[in-house]
């Protein structure tokens, strides 16, 4: 690879090779039965070249055919996007960041099958109305990035995830209850997943009515990620560059309640999306997106940073071998100061939401949301009294995050996003 | 090379096994606003070996076929782990066939520069309008050659060439941002993407008009769906329920999707047909090597069929329909649609709209979601119908309901069936986008719940 970069330096102004080798093993249980085991062994390289100020791109998984790869990249560079940046030179990064765990590597297919059976058996015993789906996956990745500015680095990463869903008719209404684990290592135990699902299942047995109106609503860590989508799009360098983000000229402005801090933390130990460098070889760093309600950082790759005259933030992420694009890594919301129990007790008449469906049909960039509550409970005089059916919540996240009554001390990680529970005032609920 | 693969298959000693190989060359050029966003040309080589033994599947995907024997043994081990001892596949007779792409206007003969110039031409047309603040206009092309070998003795090579163009316009007025888009995409060659000026102009106009359109008032309406939205509706809300894997896995769907049961009026027929010439969803053989079919899902209002793979056909005692498909060979084939449509009726658009006193004409789909028999779709744009005439444009129209009630409420079917391909596709079990086509004539539905803003 090094030789290849040396060679192409003669014909281009800049070149970059991104090599990705991955082995993944998904194991799936469907309807409470083992359904499938797969193994994927992939290798590929992506080449970016800059020639006459224009960017070309090609990828292949025919590793031996670098000639076609180069020709394709050169052909596309003739028509490519004009770029002002150079591929980055080597700089200090967290070489020792732990992202490779031997327990994931050592986990065998039969161990994964056992874990799945345990989840299915335990849940079937305690929640007999539910059928159980479990998806589990282990991934090992080798990444190497070499460019014509002298950068040459590599890392190995492991990843493991479990997602368990119990579904079925409870009191004549179809119910989904889910929980999971996402990390670069194995979970210490699967019992938190089992406990959560069983507790929610027990609570689901009682149905409660809800009337439409504005009320206090607790969004649990399992549903906050769908609200955070709007912020992620708003600070995404691509949308800033295109001028389509409502946050494009709001850096430094206080936009959210001062108790809200949202952080992008690619260095969080053991988390799913922890990486020492991004897909362009830029060192990653922990940064506030919002600090005490104030917009502090955009999420930038090389391209958007150079366009905006700013420094890249180490967020040029690749999906597989594809071209890098700005994206968040491990997102966190800072914890508050009340316990979840006290939070529930403080609600006179409201809702606590554990699961939502939908989203994506509203104008996410503008902050609008409108979601169906797939699992939520009515709170009356500080007590959870029963599950609500056919309920929607809607509003705008920029208003919502200015209407905060309380933030919980405890946090939970869901799909790589670590958040407390948040109690909002004046949320629009349609029953 | 196929001789070597056959030898590997012969030695496996399992109920059934397949080896897939795929070569693909994909290129595309996209503009975002004034600027080229991406240009790329990629080559892929992927394959897999899939083994079925006594009810269990094992799948190993790779891009290094020299290790095929090792991968095959691994897949056998996985299949045996999953095996329940029960279950089987509806196997077929061996097919030996080579299908090559033959097109007079093969887009691979057109230079990249010419493709860029065309994209730029359409993109400039959109940007001419002051209120259009951003665009996304692109051309993409994908040529693939797929090999399927099975332990039945099947040995198929099929080539396919997908190409098309898509364009989207974003209009802005203060905080109000609206989007309109359209695309063409089939297996029909280069001419398909020429002469789209009219469509491009309409999209720019739609995006700008949407800025001024009023939000719909929620309520219950008589609604006309245009062929594009009706096609999306039949694919998303009904088509997926016809996929036999959903049917045998889900008791509730199984209890509803009974062959012979009435699902709609006498003139309603719904078809999935992989054999239609040159459409985006067409193919000769599915990814289990089964010849594709024309399957009547609903005929004259009665449920008559469903879509099968070899496994679902066995489980339900029916025949495979050629609907086992994978987006590429990093994935297993699963039951999918091909070209799904509502058959044309006999009403003209004037007859359909004529006796509507107060209703909504909903055009093209912006997005949608289904959950068993419940669906919600938002249309890209819509118009108020007053006394049989199309009036002002409205937006944020979200249609929702129960698919079975909605099918029964179809009370007029147009004579203007149109099929749509495009460049996107269908998603299922993490496999997206699968090239499919859908279509319909204009249809009129009574008592549709329109959410919209309160």
Description of the structure:
The complex is a heterodimer of chains A (431) and B (454). Chain A is of the alpha+beta class and 431 residues long. Chain A folds into 2 domains: 2-201, PmbA/TldD fold (2-Layer Sandwich), CATH 3.30.2290; 206-431, no CATH class. In chain A, 21% of the residues lie in helices and 40% in strands. Chain A contains 10 helices and 19 strands. Chain A has a 6-stranded antiparallel β-sheet with strand order 3-2-1-4-5-6. A 5-stranded mixed beta barrel of chain A has the order 7-14-15-17-19. Chain A is globular, with a radius of gyration of 24 Å. The mean pLDDT of chain A is 94. Chain B has 454 residues and is of the alpha+beta class. Chain B folds into 2 domains: 2-212, PmbA/TldD fold, CATH 3.30.2290.10; 215-450, no CATH class. Chain B is 22% helix and 42% strand. Chain B has 10 helices and 25 strands. In chain B, strands 1, 2, 3, 4, 5, 6 and 7 form a 7-stranded mixed β-sheet that branches. In chain B, a hairpin with an 8-residue loop joins strand 13 (324-325) and strand 14. The longest helix of chain B has 16 residues, at 112-127. Chain B is globular. Chain B starts with a helix and ends with a strand. Chains A and B meet through strand 2, strand 3, helix 2 and helix 4 of A and strand 1, strand 2, strand 3, helix 2 and helix 3 of B.
